[in-house]
Amino acid sequence: DTEVTQTPKHLVMGMTNKKSLKCEQHMGHRAMYWYKQKAKKPPELMFVYSYEKLSINESVPSRFSPECPNSSLLNLHLHALQPEDSALYLCASSPISTSGGDTQYFGPGTRLTVL
Amino acid sequence: GESVGLHLPTLSVQEGDNSIINCAYSNSASDYFIWYKQESGKGPQFIIDIRSNMDKRQGQRVTVLLNKTVKHLSLQIAATQPGDSAVYFCAEIYSGTYKYIFGTGTRLKVLA
User: Fold this and answer.
1) Cα separation of B23 and B61, whole Å?
2) What distance separates the 2 farthest-apart alpha carbons in chain B?
3) Of the candidates A46, A101, A43, which has an alpha carbon nearest to the alpha carbon of residue A74?
4) Alpha-carbon gap, residue B109 to B25, rounded angstroms
5) Where are the beta strands (DSSP E) in chain B?
6) Which candidate from A40, A45, A48 shows the least CB-CB separation from B8?
7) Is A13 helix (H, G, I), strand (E, B) or coil?
8) CA B94 to chain centre
9) Which of B34, B42, B105 is nearest residue A103 as measured by Cβ atoms?
């Protein structure tokens, strides 16, 4: 299994809603990532978990709350979002290579629209 | 030909021709480089990678060239097909970190 899965595929939410994005991988990877991608732009890193611990938070607003329940799952909890948070949210995973250079594999993304 | 718009450079290529997509990377300490293909509405898909101790690597119909002297990376696609139409991103990373630095991306349009 070389796949990263994400649910839901599409999400529309109001500014007062609470929702969660989910990501799963069964490749035994020990690093997992959340990215935000706006149209015609490269992915922007939000969070990195390594060995189920948060290792990087790229100064993301607290209305985004990541969670890594186990080595296969990664969640992103959303609360009180703004319309400018509308974007494609991508999850990725990587094996944490000991030989240098870690290949990240991406999921299909969740298209989020905040009304 | 190649055009640079406000946001995303576009390369238009005739079907069957070879494509060359270029990327200037930023960190001379980066030692691992990857090319991703992203089709509309999908996540980035791994195409090919190269480590800094190499200057060329070949895959199926794709070749990556690395010039560390000028910090330049290129992706060559042989016999370009309509299915190659997508946005292509290069990414660089320094081993031991988790943070990729992505290029701005190039849209490849294959003309029939």
Assistant:
1) 19
2) 44
3) A46
4) 23
5) 2-3, 10-14, 19-24, 32-38, 45-51, 56-58, 62-67, 72-77, 86-93, 101-102, 106-111
6) A40
7) strand
8) 18
9) B34
Written as six digits, the tokens of B75 are: 């992706």
Which residues on chain B are in Cβ contact (under 8 Å) with A108?
42-43
Nearest Cα to Cα of residue A92 among A30, A40, A17: A30
- A11 contacts A110 by C-beta, under 8 angstroms: yes
What is the distance between the alpha carbons of residues A33 and A47, in angstroms, rounded to a whole number? 6
Q: Calculate how close chain A gets to B60, using CA atoms only, in Å.
A: 18
* CA–CA distance, A57 with A32 (Å, rounded to integer): 12
To the nearest whole Å, the CA of A106 is away from the closest chain B CA by: 6
Q: pLDDT truncated to tens, each residue of chain B (112 aa)?
A: 544 444 689 999 999 999 999 999 989 999 999 999 999 989 999 999 999 999 999 999 999 999 999 999 999 999 999 999 999 999 999 877 888 999 999 999 999 8
Residues contacting B1, CB < 8 A, separation 6+: B11, B12
Return d(Cα A7, Cα B5) in angstroms, integer. Answer: 33
How many residues can be counted in chain B?
112
Contact B98 A101 (CB under 8 A): no
Cα distance between residue A47 and residue A66, in whole Å:
7
Rounded to a whole number of angstroms, the distance from the CA of A45 to the nearest CA of chain B is: 8
Cα gap B87→B78, rounded to integer Å: 17
Give the separation between CA A79 and CA B24, rounded to whole angstroms: 38
